[in-house]
Amino acid sequence: MIHLITGGAGSGKSAYAEQKILELGEGRRIYVATMFPGVDPENSQRIQRHRDRRAPMNFETIECPTNLSAAVIPENSNILLEDVGNLVANEMFLPDASGIHAVNSVLDGFNYLMDIAANLIIVTNEINSDGVDYDNATRVFQQFMGLVNQELGELADKVTEVVYGIPLTVK
Description:
Elements: E1 2-7, H1 13-22, E2 29-33, H2 41-54, E3 59-63, E4 78-82, H3 84-93, H4 102-116, E5 119-123, H5 136-155, E6 158-163, E7 166-169
Helix pairs in contact: 3-4, 3-5, 4-5
């Protein structure tokens, strides 16, 4: 089963995704974390807060900011990947990442996860709805995210948008 969960920043999509994976039962739980801490102490603090919150949920965390298809992940696990926006941005902008081939790299990674997972829950971001005109690099990121999200929506068995903490079934 593939479940795509989307929503805006602070919408509650992470908590909803964690609840959905807990509902799958006692199988092996793998959390694939895509945030790249970089040199920003705020990112490192955010990563630690997420780890602390997940600790009682018995997740094994695999840090994978790029090259998802090369991650060593146990087969037949219940996998929670968070989040697509970080993964696409990392693939576009980090040195030695896929750059202009970010969409293909990310989709290859998802195909890999779909092949090995018992269940896959993917958290993505709602974008392109704020009406703001951004710089060229951000517009390319938005285009790439749109392409990835459309493909994931097509592949997913379930799609849920979380709005103000309320899950709305899309598919």
